[in-house]
Amino acid sequence: QVQLVELGGGLVQPGGSLRLSCAASQFTLDYYVIAWFRQAPGKEREGVSCISGSDGSTYYGHSVQGRFTISRDNAKNTVYLQMNSLKPEDTANYYCAAALRDGLNLNTDWGLSWEYDYWGQGTQVTVSS
């Protein structure tokens, strides 16, 4: 079956960096929109970033703009999230999610969690001194 596996979470100091990986199996990333979401205890799931499967267009949430970078390596069927200048408020469980490319209007809907069909198990990111 379709699987998404997140790796790279951990504990990091404020101002530090982490690189998350989302490895896809049983499907090709070209046909899917891949997004990163995060959820902290007691908070709603928040769209972090998204990358299209067609032209590689990227989208970012306001709180991470300028600090996070999403990228895709089609040869490895993997999407990455480079997180720099991490803040304590970035602490959350991070999930990658996939949606069929043609089923999502990225300009308006990329951050809507219900639009995504497949989800990874999550990886915990903790930013603390």
Kindly describe this structure.
It is a single chain. By secondary structure, the protein is mostly beta strands. 3% of the residues lie in helices and 47% in strands. The protein contains one helix and eleven strands, in the order βββββββββαββ. The chain has one helix at residues 106-109, and strands at 3-7, 10-12, 18-25, 32-39, 46-51, 58-60, 68-73, 78-83, 92-100, 118-119, 123-127. The longest helix is centred in the last third of the chain and has 4 residues, at 106-109. The protein is globular, with a radius of gyration of 14 Å. The model has no long low-confidence stretch (mean pLDDT 93).
Short overview:
The chain is mainly beta and 129 residues long. The chain is built from 1 helix and 11 strands, in the order E-E-E-E-E-E-E-E-E-H-E-E. The strands form 2 sheets. Strands 2, 4, 5, 6, 9, 10 and 11 form a 7-stranded mixed β-sheet that branches. Strands 1-3-8-7 form a 4-stranded antiparallel β-sheet, with no helix packed on it.
